[in-house]
Amino acid sequence: MWRGRAGALLRVWGFWPTGVPRRRPLSCDAASQAASNYPSCWNCGGPWGPGREDRFFCPQCRALQAPDPTRDYFSLMDCNRSFRVDTVKLQHRYQQLQRLVHPDFFSQRSQTEKDFSEKHSTLVNDAYKTLLAPLSRGLYLLKLHGIEIPERTDYEMDRQFLMEIMEINEKLAEAESEAAMKEIESIVKAKQKEFTDNVSSAFEQDDFEEAKEILTKMRYFSNIEEKIKLKKIPL
């Protein structure tokens, strides 16, 4: 108890017990150096300071800043870097960001902010669309791990799978009735659900080669889905 009181008195009088480390305030030079490590606002020149990650506006002058080129889609959309994404939360984040950066809200601002707004809005749209769909989300997640799937990968697929794709494409080409189309849609939907579950497990186990193979198959079935949509459009 006495030591606590003595320490308080010594702090008031300007002394400090020998051997007890004392925290010194930053000198002017050190403070300036720390501030210079933070990005500066293009408009007022002020540092953004810590916590920049979720700031789109300068805290001093409120000018919209340029998009951060080092920020990935998961960080931008406030999602964990994982294949499993809460799509409801993703949609809410998308709406929140568009209310902040959509060009409609910057019609009376400087040209620089108008340009930044366009870039932010495009980036938010791209991030939302990419993370919303399982296939594009998986491909993007692989890309963050340095793995990309070439467009033409027939040579890597097993013969049985390619035969399955050919059969479905033939059925689609021959389908004339609504019932036949629904049957094909049902098959494709079930396969995509199976692939989505399997690729989710692969990512959870950090098995990126397995994830790559499954996503390649998903891309084949995604192409069939596009063909189904086109066939439904009346000529």
Automatic annotation (TrEMBL):
One of its GO terms (cellular component) is cytosol. Residues 39-65 form the HscB tetracysteine metal binding motif domain. Residues 157-229 form the Co-chaperone HscB C-terminal oligomerisation domain. The keyword Oxidoreductase does not apply. It comes from the Eukaryota. Keywords: Chaperone, Cytoplasm, Metal-binding, Mitochondrion. One of its GO terms (molecular function) is ATPase activator activity. Transmembrane segments: none annotated. SUPFAM superfamilies: Chaperone J-domain, HSC20 (HSCB), C-terminal oligomerisation domain. It is found in: Cytoplasm; Mitochondrion. Pfam families: HscB_4_cys, HSCB_C. InterPro entries: HscB, HscB_4_cys, HscB_C_sf, HscB_oligo_C, J_dom_sf. Pathway: Cofactor biosynthesis; iron-sulfur cluster biosynthesis. The keyword Metal-binding applies. GO terms for biological process: [2Fe-2S] cluster assembly; protein complex oligomerization. Acts as a co-chaperone in iron-sulfur cluster assembly in mitochondria. Required for incorporation of iron-sulfur clusters into SDHB, the iron-sulfur protein subunit of succinate dehydrogenase that is involved in complex II of the mitochondrial electron transport chain. Recruited to SDHB by interaction with SDHAF1 which first binds SDHB and then recruits the iron-sulfur transfer complex formed by HSC20, HSPA9 and ISCU through direct binding to HSC20. Plays an essential role in hematopoiesis. Acts as a co-chaperone in iron-sulfur cluster assembly in the cytoplasm. Also mediates complex formation between components of the cytosolic iron-sulfur biogenesis pathway and the CIA targeting complex composed of CIAO1, DIPK1B/FAM69B and MMS19 by binding directly to the scaffold protein ISCU and to CIAO1. This facilitates iron-sulfur cluster insertion into a number of cytoplasmic and nuclear proteins including POLD1, ELP3, DPYD and PPAT. Interacts with ISCU and HSPA9 to form an iron-sulfur transfer complex. Interacts with SDHAF1 (via the first LYR motif); the interaction recruits the iron-sulfur transfer complex composed of HSC20, HSPA9 and ISCU and mediates the incorporation of iron-sulfur clusters into SDHB which also interacts with HSC20. Interacts with the cytoplasmic form of ISCU and with CIA complex member CIAO1 (via LYR motif). NCBIfam families: hscB. Belongs to the HscB family. This is Iron-sulfur cluster co-chaperone protein HscB. It comes from Pongo abelii. The lineage of its organism: Eukaryota, Metazoa, Chordata, Craniata, Vertebrata. The gene is HSCB.
